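Reviewer 2 asked us to include a model.

Predict the structure of this chain.
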Amino acid sequence: MHLFLSAPGMERFLGEELLRACASAHLEPIGEGLLVAKGMPEGFRGPVVFARQCLPDATPFPVTSIRGAAETLTTRLIGELPLDGPWRLHIVARYGLVGSDAGAHRCELIREAVVEQLRKRRRSLLRGLSGRRTEAGTPASTSKEETDTSPFAPDESFVQLLLTSPDSGFVSIVPAPGPSGLLGLVWPFQRGEVPVAVDKEAPSRAFAKLVESEARLGLRIAAGETCVDLGASPGSWTYVPAMRGARVTAVDRSPLRDDLMRHPRVGFVQGDAFRFVPETAVDWLLCDVIAAPERSIDLVLDWVRARRCRRFVVTIKFKGDGEYAALDRLKREMPPLAARFHLLHLCANKNEVCVFGEVLREP
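Predicted model (structure tokens):
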């Protein structure tokens, strides 16, 4: 049984997507943004566009008390995790009003109790818990700020406890190397959520989609790299790499914001984003153009097939809610072309999704 978390209100589209992947799956909504899926194919890896997070092989977990929950979870950790490897632990809640922090304190108390149980019963496991120090035998604090959000390494295990009410929830324990092979289905962010970036100097809030895609890739556009930004006006996706020292060719029929038009690392090309071809391959293809989904899908596939870029972040925009099945084409055609790719309804997305990843190098 897999437990999927979606953005509130997106459960219908998540369910439709899962049924296209496996018509025999049995789906059960259990709350806003929560969907239990039984009967998914063995080894199912996604991507699942409308799932913010997945708890693979989830099982119901009673929370009769803080101490009882900690003891039960610790016993399972000792029995199921490699004793000498690194692992990450997320204990989070999803209940109450949307956007509330209901259950956050309870989750913190359970985590602290688990740490105390491990200290008493299996210190070797405690040493492997991500983000913790064991100098003088004293672990670091368990604050959210120390949560490791880098991509999973092959030797890392991942444990998620999701409270769906004050006294119940689900637990998922994925021993190594499982999490690293589930990238795009299982995320290192709590509940799969990335806070939407804010920068009042950017031309628009659209820049947040690019920043979130970078965070999920575990990569950032760096100084000295080359980018093409298709459909760039007014320049939010050009702004990000230019401010970091990268060189950007921005293509659009309309000009960028004045300061970006004058920026020494930005070259503006007035023209059709769908016709532009760079003279040499670039490090990043960026595209947030307003276009029919099929055109944007064709564009990113053409660029990746021709290896005109090493990495890519492209938005697929929709007018209605009946067009999402078009994304299945990317699920079929992108894997042989990309070393890795993700297709996701981002926290920063509205009626759109982003496809992002790295192009497979030539043999």
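The chain is about 25% helix and 25% strand. Confidence is low (pLDDT under 50) at residues 132-145. We have added this to the supplementary material.
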